[in-house]
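QA checklist item 7 of 12: single-chain prediction sanity check.
[x] sequence parsed
[x] length recorded as 206
[x] structure emitted
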Amino acid sequence: MITGLLFPFAFGIAFFVALVMATVYGPCAHDIDHVILRARKLDPSDLEMLLDAGAEWKLRQSLTILAFRAAQEDRIRLAREYLQRVGHNAGLIQFWIMPENQPLVEGKPREKYTERDSLVAEAFELAMELRLYSIGATVRIGAWLMLKMYRWPQMLIPRVPDLRVQCGVDVIKKYRRLTELAVILSARYGKNYQDQLVEVLQSRSV
């Protein structure tokens, strides 16, 4: 598809925008309370269901073309909302763990990493990948909606499951892992905080 060919270019622009925002505007770290307060609920299972190729294939086979176009427009808009939540939550987690990640970036030898250091480094990298992915995927979805591609001939209607893996980033696997790491890292704050983080990051989307 045309949008598939344009995605690497859009991803490059997204990377540049994210880099400029990170360097020029200077993101500031915040604490776990900020994550709990500002996180937007997204159960990874809801995202996985939306991006399931088999479920979409059944819709294509069972609905009339008019009904499928309407359903696909709704699914595309829902995908945009979910993937924006991925980027938003990834940013919150990234800035929360930033103070712990800074010494690692500044050259702490990897052989001296504690178990927590390794988890922080992994979470920070995942968060950055997901933020860039979210920007790029949102640009792609924006093109679908702007061109009203859900109204095109059925074979050309965008496939929502195509959003699952972009530039090597499997959004479901990486987002699920990031939320798991966030919950693990929150254990030092006590069970109450850990339970609250599970509630805001892993509960059913609304």
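[x] summary fact logged: Confidence is low (pLDDT under 50) at residues 19-26.
[ ] second reviewer sign-off
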